[in-house]
Every structure is written in structure tokens, then in C-alpha cells.
Design goal:
The protein has nine helices and twelve strands. It is an alpha+beta fold. 52% of the residues are buried. Bound molecules: aspartic acid. Aspartic acid binds next to strand 8.
Amino acid sequence: MHYHIPVTSTPKHAPILLVHGGAWAIPADAAAAHLAGVRNALETGHTILARGGSALDAVEAAVTVLEDDPIFDAGRGSFLTSDGRVQLDALLMDGGRMKAGGVACVERLRNPIQAARLVLEKSPHVYFVGSGAEQFAHSHGMALIDNAELVLDRERERLTHAQAREAAGLADLTFSGHILHDDKSPETAFLHDPARFASHDTVGAVALDAHGNLAAATSTGGTLNKPPGRVGDSSLIGCGCYADNLSAAVSLTGWGEPIMKLVLGKWATDRVAGGTAPEIAAREAISYLYSRLGGHGGIILLGPDGRFGLAHNTPAMAWGVATPNGLQTGLTV
Ligand code: ASP
């Protein structure tokens, strides 16, 4: 008789990590940098998952890499507020423990996603803003930096240009208060006209670890020329980020106000819980965003069984997926 005694227990799940680096008309001369950025993030997060690390550690590490990369609108290199500062929002969520941590309007932290992790682990609360968030992070060991360290000359120029356009009455339609669904042009033209799209370089990650836990993280500098104090969807639970082992993990990017009004992250994960495949639910979420409020953006969505979906209605979305079969990146889905 033959007995097979396993020496190590096999993982319950094949770990999976998805990341995104924004959804918009990514120009050709920025394509390579976006792809390299998402690949670096994937490699870092995937190494953690492959060693048996948690989904939460993987998404935090992946988003930290993306925050540190100045090509993205997160951490250093983010878009500037109308008064020329970087103001950052970030959230992460652990779908196994149903714990979340978020920060918004922080100006003195290099990696807001790490501050969000501290909120998740060290606080009975879920969300801190402004100087209170900075002080909380500092009291748990994070350095407070000068906001100027997060500001790039590239972004000063971009702000000057945006404000000149605004003064000339040429502000981007998406943020000027003209709601896109009032526009009568055909949807196909809308979807392929890059001039319609403000840049959306927010970053995010979702992961499933070998223990079957889901996690999600999203981090952003928000929208260009935003008034100080404006918070978008990215760091709000159920809007730009959500994770629950009983449904799915999600991270979104795009025009924040419509995403918030539809609580779109939760909308998508609820559909997965209801039996819709993530690849379908991702596409449905983006169509709903457009059909209901004329919104635009991109989504990564991962179910507890490892099936996943990606979708966007912008000309491009920087994305990457790591599975045990390897890493894949792209600029369209
Ligand atoms: N959703 C973000 C916000 O509205 C922007 C983005 O995704 O780039 O703050």
C-alpha cells in the first residue's frame, strides 16, 4: 500500500495581484514609463505573495512602489491643488478581517498608503484627514516632510497651463461643471477624443493571497487644479476602493465625482457576490458609470476564486496582472 504524506501543505489559492496606474489618454511618449511603473509594482507585490505573504502586505507594497514613481498621480509627482500644493488621499482594505484605513488631504507624508495601513492596524477608527492624519502617522513613526519635496516642476507647469486655460474659458469639460452626458456627440467620438480627458494617473492594487484573503488599495493626488480640501473617490470606502472576502476586491480610477455618487466600487463587488463573473461585472460597472452619469474611468476587480476583470472607457489604462503563470502588463483591455 502507498501512503502519500505531503511535506508541506499546498496553498489553498494561487495568489493573484492586479495593479493599475490610471485610466486616460496616456500619451505615446509616456507609455513606456507607465508600463515600467506597473511592472515594478507587480514584481514587488508578487514577490510578497509568492512567499506566502498576505494580500494586504502585497497591495500596500505595490502601491508604495507606484507612489514613489513620479510618473503617477500619487505620492511625489502628483497633480497640484489650485494653490500649488500636493494633497494626497489613500485607502486600503483587508477583506479577510474587514478592516480599513484611510487618509485624505495629507500634505506631509511621502507614502500615504503606509499611513492608511497604520490607521487600519493601530486605530479603532477608519479615516483620518489633514493634519490629524499626519500627526497620527507621525506618532506611529512616519516622517513628516516638507510639501515642496512632493512637488515637481513638471506639475507646476501643468498647473500654470491648466489655470491659463481656465482663465481663457477653455477648462477641461470634465471638470468645468459641464456634465458630459449633456454633450450630444456620439459616444464613440467621445471615447476616442483625447482632448476630452483630463489625466487620471491614480494608482491601485487588488490581491488574493494563498490563504484566500482579498485586499485592495488606492492612492491619489486627486485631480489637477482641485480646490484645497477636495476629496475624490479614491480613498472613500466603496467608491474607489473596497475589499471583502465574501464578495471581491476592487480599485478604480477616473473622474471621481460620478464614481462617488454611484458608490461604484461596492456596486461592482456586490455584483460579484450576486454571481456575476468579475470580467463581466467590471465591464458593467464602467458602462453604468457612463450611462448613468456620463463618467469615465477604469476598474480592476478580483473575486475570491481568483477570477478577475479589468475595464475602462478611456482611451487607455495602465494595468498589470501577476499570476503563478507570470506577469502581464498593458495599456488597453
Ligand atoms: N479618481 C481620482 C479622483 O477623482 C482621480 C484619478 O483617478 O486620477 O481624485
